[in-house]
Structure prediction request, 558 residues.
Amino acid sequence: MATVGRVVVLLWVDILAMYAMYVMMSYLTNVWKIGFTHATAIVNIFWGVVSLSPLFLSFIADTFTGNYWMLLLSSFSYSAGLGFLTMSTPPVLANSMGNCKEYSPECIGEGQKILFYVAMPLIAFGMGGHMTSWNIFMAEQFSGEEDNLDEGTFRRFFCSVLAVVIVTFVAVLGLPYVKPWSLRFGIPAICTLVATLLFLSGSCSYKYFKPMGSPLTVFFRVFVAAFSNLFYRTPKDSKQLFEIDNPQLYSVPHTRSLRCLDKAAIVIPTKPLEEQAKNTWRLCTVTEVEETKTIIRMIPVWMTFILCGVVSAIGFTYFIEQLDHLNPKVGRLKVPTVALLWFYEQAQNQCVELYVKFTNALGISKSKKLAPSFGISVSMILAILCCITAAKVENRRLGVVQRHGLVDKPDERVPMTMFWLLPQFVLLGGFNGIFNYSAISFFIDQSPVSTHRCLPFFVSGVSGVGILCSVVSVYVVGRISESGGKMNWFQHDLNGSRLDKYYWTLAWLMAVNLVVFIVVAVFYRYKEAELAEQQAEEFGGINEPYDDDSKGLCCCCC
Prediction:
């Protein structure tokens, strides 16, 4: 169990790299001097890829590499990415590339830009790999030792976690006081390399498990099998579809929705059943087909989550940019900007705890089934309030900018305390905390059992799509705002832009999205209600065959 500490030390990588990417907006706007909308696009594309990648990397880990190799490869990717990011800062390679050493756009050559754009996907892969495999690999190290865990084991594990937390806490609080950007990125890069080497040194003592296959493979198999049996007629009696008759295996009853997918379970009478059953890409069980149907029926709900990702994206882009231009002092004491990020994390955790207490208070009542939908609605309301609050605060900030003549001085600090941003950070934390917990709870209740371990990746994947869509939303809103010869809301710098109007736009869009979600949630066929409906039909003696009207690719989604 002493080797577990070498796995825990990888938390250095995640927390320090997270901090390095949180200050990326400031680096791009202050050093590269690019427009804040351009910098926002770069950062949002990065975080969108980070959120989407676990869904694909989990498939690779479960099918090919296993969790150890995914962790090792992603850790080396972290080290290389942060190393390249450090080398992309002007002073590091100034002599070899013939550039100046000042932190200014004139000192950034093509070589530094190439290193920067290579570093970003490497860091994204490192983050995604750790999100995919760290928890599972840690659980694997404890598997089979539940009876052998003594007090000393827990003490060593607790001390290793505490040491990582203390070191990270000191580093994160100290890094804001480090002025050179090469050191701000270099310190996380060195710590990442040390953590990776420590993890690698324990390779001989880890427990290894072979990849058992990804549950996502089932969905691909169902579509391939349904397409291959496209010209075969679906039997009228659903009992003629293929299913393994074993009471010890998990099974799902047949439903009459999305009947075109039933073709994946058609048994071809001219071929031996044993031969067909061996080719799982041509013949699937009814349970596998029904699990795929369940996921497809959840797509309308997922679509309402995309705008939640758009709102989440403003937290590590526009909020950080505003924070960087406000007064960080309380009296004579300069407060690190990460203090507001701490309030964000606390709001996220506390709101989740309150929501968990609320759901536990419902007990086993029928309303507990609707608790995830209620939580998602509450999180969307918090998102609306967050956007409204951000719009009001930004409007006040712009007023201070105009009164002090700072419109054409984007590098000057605005004489307005950064704690004006505290309410919107708290609301954003509450929104993200309740939304993530409620969305995962909704998927646990409604999704197939075989996909439960992939559920967090589904949620992060949908949020990743929303974060990527935020880049498009800024472009579209900017184009619409300048119609009729008006000024574009997004100018080169923050002081000349009208970010408050964009926040109001997001508030209205989220209000519409909330209404759409409520409508979708009302008409959504919850899994328990669907099974109860089927049981009522069965006990009522109603078990009629149905006609095959799913010719071609026509699907009935009802």
